[in-house]
Automatic annotation (TrEMBL):
<dbReference type="Pfam" id="PF00201">
    <property type="entry name" value="UDPGT"/>
</dbReference>
<dbReference type="GO" id="GO:0016138">
    <property type="term" value="P:glycoside biosynthetic process"/>
</dbReference>
<dbReference type="InterPro" id="IPR035595">
    <property type="entry name" value="UDP_glycos_trans_CS"/>
</dbReference>
<keyword id="KW-0808">Transferase</keyword>
<keyword id="KW-0284">Flavonoid biosynthesis</keyword>
<dbReference type="GO" id="GO:0009813">
    <property type="term" value="P:flavonoid biosynthetic process"/>
</dbReference>
<protein>
    <submittedName>
        <fullName>UDP-Glycosyltransferase superfamily protein</fullName>
    </submittedName>
</protein>
<dbReference type="InterPro" id="IPR002213">
    <property type="entry name" value="UDP_glucos_trans"/>
</dbReference>
<comment type="similarity">
    <text>Belongs to the UDP-glycosyltransferase family.</text>
</comment>
<keyword id="KW-0328">Glycosyltransferase</keyword>
<dbReference type="GO" id="GO:0008194">
    <property type="term" value="F:UDP-glycosyltransferase activity"/>
</dbReference>
Amino acid sequence: MLKNSGEAFPYPEIHFRNFRSSMIRVPREPSDDNFKRDDQCFIDSVKQSCDIVLIKTFREIEGKYIDYFSALSGKKLVPVGPLIEEQSTNEDENIEIMKWLDMKKESSTVFVSFGSECFLTKEEIEEVAHGLEFSGVNFIWVVRFPMGERVRVDEVLPKGFLERVGEERGLVVEGWAPQAKILGHASIGGFVSHCGWNSVLESMSFGVPIIALPMQLDQPLNARLVEEVGLGVEVNRDESGGLQREEIAQGIRLVVLEKNGEGVRTKARKCGDVMRLKREEEIDGVVEELLSICRKGKRQ
């Protein structure tokens, strides 16, 4: 089904770093008949697609990879855009968060979130906390714990952290926050993200540059893509893959404050403008492809 699948991937800039192998989820034993690896499920789905494969992305971001896999699979990959949920207009939804953001200067604050399925260890939380503190940048940080784990935020944060940063500079939210609404706020100048694909697309759509801290699965490759297209930077880790507070602080300052980060900020803004303008165009293209399949089916 995959033509020339034995050939090397032609885009070496998208790769796992040496320590990344430990971040990839280890599948269960192949003897488990009820289990299929995610990549095998994807390949099986492509096989079953008669003519086209709809994929959640933008051609402006992944055009060459879309064309490469189309040639490899013999199927036409059609990007559907980011499919971002419209921002809620509910005034009661996390109103305190939005009030806090309203008090901040434009592009002065970073949003920090690692998604709903990635939970940091206590050591990782401490490194992120110190990185935020050392950066000197305003932040809103969403901290989540696994379901059923009875722990308070103040129990895992470094001693005195909340007092040192103060409520004016840092807001720590436990559980959930309206991510799209926050990323769309004018005060947000960067997104410290695990680089889950939905988060990457949301950040790009709102023109917010990414400070990448990928944790597992496809996230390291998503982070490489973000850096390759110039829409963010990946934070350096130690040789074993551990987080380093100084590197986190440096990544935040570069993207939000420093002159050297102006190129990333400008590209992110332009990307957001393009994605907003072409959102309907992508959907129109999908509709035309589906109509074409329907017409072909009727003729047969």
